[in-house]
Amino acid sequence: MNDSESGNKAQQNGEVVKNTGQFIQHIAYWYSDGSIVVRVDNQTIYKIHLSMLTKLSKVTEEILTIPDNKRSDDPNREGTSLYPLFIPGTNAQEFNDFLFWLYLTEWESLGDDVEKERMCTHLLKLADMWEIAAAKKYAIHALDMVYLSPSRRLELAGKFAIPDWVRPAVRRILDGKLSQLKDDDICAMGWKVYSMLVNAMEMLGEETRRTALVPPGMIKDPSIQCTDHTSCQSIWPKLWFDKIGRDLLHPKTPMKLGGIVAKILQDATLTHPKLSECCRLDMVLHCSRIIFADEDIVTQVPNAIIQFHATLA
Length: 313
Hints:
Layout: H1 3-12, E1 24-30, E2 36-39, E3 44-48, H2 50-54, H3 58-63, E4 85-86, H4 92-104, H5 113-129, H6 133-144, H7 150-160, H8 166-174, H9 183-189, H10 191-213, H11 229-248, H12 260-264, H13 277-288, H14 293-312
Parallel strand pairs: 1-3, 2-4
Antiparallel strand pairs: 2-3
């Protein structure tokens, strides 16, 4: 068995691996005044400042605690160049990105969104695993400044308990078409979440058709200024469908239920020679106060997804 195979086996067994020259010092994170030497794989070792890590959280303090039975000047003590302390649960790229945050704190020098997403996601993972509240808050804020697809945000929201991302992501998906989601998007958010979105889209479709074909009820007590309310009542269903229903059912660019009120408030939307001006104004006011069912659906679905995500913790 060669040194590499021996090191791999020892690492898997949680044993201490002696540095016989197989490790490479990290070019950026090897500080001459560093107080502990660590590794996360069988290639690279880091000499960093123990106090900066242990103060971050109870978890980092625990995983970096050196057994008391070893003197600080003992060359066989873990955390030295000869016996680097192994940190499990991560890899070199993730740890590099974490140290970048730890030592620089500001990431303005980062490149494009792809690089920012990678670094922030790695930071988010380790911050969540090691219970570092400050790092998790920073990563979430930084990712808010990066473009992420709705499915990616739902994926990260589920993994790292970020409920604030769920509602905007669901709204963006439901404002579009589920057919626009690719297999990778569905796998990212998970089939359970996708099934909730499918059900929500079906409910929105049913509610949209119902709203298009069944107008809000005409006001029963018309203004005394209306001289022919029977005529107003008879034309109202056709007027509603022509002005609102057709847009809701448009085969290519259907209007969302949430757009009804804005259209109704346009001066010429609900005008018709057989609809008196007083009844028109009454119906504009009445319809503008209606809370259409899409808001309930778009509220219920994120809540259900958040509850589901809570079961994954």
